[in-house]
Amino acid sequence: MFRTSYSLGDGYGDIVHGQSSFFKQVFTHVLFAANMGSEKKNVYDFMVTANRPFSGNDVFSNLQRQGIGKSAVEKVLDQLVKENKIFMKLNGKQKIYCVVQPDSTAEDQKEIQSIDEELVKITEALREVERKYKQSEIEVKTLQSTCSIEEIKSKVSKTEKIILELKSHLKKMSKTGGNVVSLKDREKVKKEYETVTKEYRKRKRMCTDILDSILENCPKPKKALFEEIGIETDESVAMPAL
To answer: The Homologous-pairing protein 2 winged helix domain covers which part of the protein (predicted)?
Structure first.
């Protein structure tokens, strides 16, 4: 009896491996298509149930708990728009999606589009009115801060009166050589000044003698003692020499 063994070799393994990769790719595409169909159904059901306009971010926020990613939501919305199940309108730079009503017709869609175009024109006109309104507010505030002709005349009259009074005072000073105080009053003020100065010097000398006596038995320096007692010298308050 003869026993013959055949070796399939590495080529058979490559074929099996290639078939495995092929089936894996097919399975992946089938699974992706199934998920895509499920995601489309979830998105469309949500739009029909809510039946009001949504942005892509709004749809994603409401469906992210179901495990649908943001990019998947955007793809599904674009696909539903192509299938005419929902329609998209631009609000500035933002896309707004809304489900197509079951009883809507092509004429209804044209009417909606016409209304949207009219709405855009009205919005632009409103912005222009708001701009002009703000400009008018600025002009009104500027006018309110400006004096009226009557107020200006009143201020001019008061200023002219002050000028006349100052001129009259200057004229009197010119006649007296700048001395508007009488000689008697000047002598009186001078005498009072000399009396006060003499008394100040006397009291200052007494205070200085007392402080010098304290400093003889005080370990603190003179400046520290003055600060502690609260004494201000002529120099510390920049008092002019008498």
So the answer is: 40-99
- Sole residue written with tokens 């994603």: 60
Are 65 and 49 contained in the same domain? yes
| The pair of three-digit structure tokens given for residue 115, joined into one six-digit string | 């209304």
Type of residue numbered 204:
K
8 A C-beta contact, residue 77 and residue 43: yes
Cβ neighbours around 25 below 10 Å, total: 10
Question: Is the separation of the CB atoms in 65 and 46 below 8 Å?
Answer: no
Q: What is the pTM of this model?
A: 0.33
Note down the domain range covering 116: 106-146
Q: Where on the phi/psi map is residue 15: left (φ > 0), alpha (ψ -120 to 50), or beta?
A: alpha
The pLDDT tens digits of the residues spanning 138-183 come to 888 888 777 788 888 899 999 999 999 998 888 877 776 656 677 7
